[in-house]
Every structure is written in structure tokens, then in C-alpha cells.
Design brief:
alpha+beta; eight-stranded mixed beta sheet; two-stranded antiparallel ribbon; 5 helices; 10 strands
Length: 177
């Protein structure tokens, strides 16, 4: 599973504005529960764990969403939970609704979140499934660079394979050798 990083010191994403699109932070558990088809209790738990929800709207209609972890996060595929250092964010659970796919919502949502959170964060992380080529393309369009691959060591423990010089930063973030 690739892990990508964007720092505020990296060049800005070169994305043209999408007519009618806005990115808003949402603090209403009921709204997010209905939008995602989840329980209010589950969404409330996310908010209680200091996760932040962002929604992309196109002409006032929800088009996609994503979550920002600010203190702890969990990567289910690796069954690992980790603490997020101060000034860093882990972005997760992104969905573009089917009627809005292929329009460039995802990279603009990612970029909007980075801009909104940059007032107190300097590094943004996102993992993605290697077979999800659309997700990978959106992440890279938003200015993220894949720096490491997350997998398993022979003993079954989570492991990191750096693919850039920043790969060791992924090991530090996740607490994985």
C-alpha cells in the first residue's frame, strides 16, 4: 500500500478551479452520517477522536468527502494504530460520489484540505490501495509524492519499504521499522 506525503513547503498543486466547487469543514455528525450511510454514533466517535470531516460541494450539492486525523489514526489493512505528531495530518476515508467521478473532485478536495489545515500543520499523509489508479492519480495531481510502500515483514508485522529519501519519515510516523 503506497503512502504519499505533501509538505506545505512543497510546490502548490497546479489545479484550475472547478466551477461551482467549494470545500467545507463539516462539524455536524448527523449530516456526515447521512452522507456516508453510517451511524451517528460512529461519526460522533470520529469527531470525539479529533478527526475532522471535509466535504466537497459542487453547486451546493455534496460531491465527495474525506477525513483528517489530527492526533491518532488507524490503517485497517495493516491493523496498525499510530499517533500523529504535532503539525502533521493523516488524510483518510475519501469518497467521490459516483455522479461526480471523473471531474477532478478528489485532487481539489485534497488540496482544499491541505490549504485549510496549513495554519497549524506542515505535513500531510495519505495511503492508498495500489490497484486504485484513479486515487493514485488524484493524490499526485494534488501535489503528494509517494515516499514509501506499506506491507508486511516475513514475520507478519507491518513493514515499510522507502521509495524516496523521505521514506524514513514514514517509518517515524507509523512507528514501524
Amino acid at each position: 500500500m503506497p503512502l504519499a506525503l505533501r509538505r506545505t513547503s512543497d510546490p502548490s498543486a497546479d489545479l484550475l478551479a472547478l466551477t461551482g466547487m467549494t470545500v467545507q469543514r463539516i462539524c455536524d455528525p448527523r449530516f456526515m452520517a447521512v452522507l456516508q450511510g453510517r451511524t451517528i454514533e460512529e461519526i460522533t466517535r470520529r469527531f470525539d477522536e479529533d478527526h475532522r470531516a471535509y466535504v466537497a460541494f459542487v453547486h451546493g450539492e455534496p460531491a465527495g468527502w474525506g477525513w483528517v486525523a489530527t492526533s491518532t489514526a488507524h490503517i485497517g489493512e495493516l491493523d496498525t494504530t499510530f499517533r500523529i505528531p504535532k503539525g502533521e495530518r493523516y488524510l483518510w476515508n475519501f469518497v467521490t460520489l459516483p455522479t461526480h467521478r471523473g471531474k477532478g473532485i478528489y485532487p481539489r478536495l485534497l488540496d482544499g484540505i491541505v490549504r485549510a489545515e496549513s495554519h497549524d500543520a506542515h505535513a500531510f499523509w495519505v495511503a492508498y490501495a495500489p490497484e486504485n489508479h484513479a486515487s493514485a492519480a488524484g493524490i499526485h495531481k494534488a501535489g503528494f509524492t509517494t515516499i514509501a510502500l506499506l506491507s508486511f515483514a516475513p514475520d507478519g508485522a507491518p513493514a515499510i519499504e522507502p521509495v524516496t529519501k523521505d521514506g524514513s519519515a514514514a517509518a517515524r510516523l507509523l512507528g514501524i521499522p
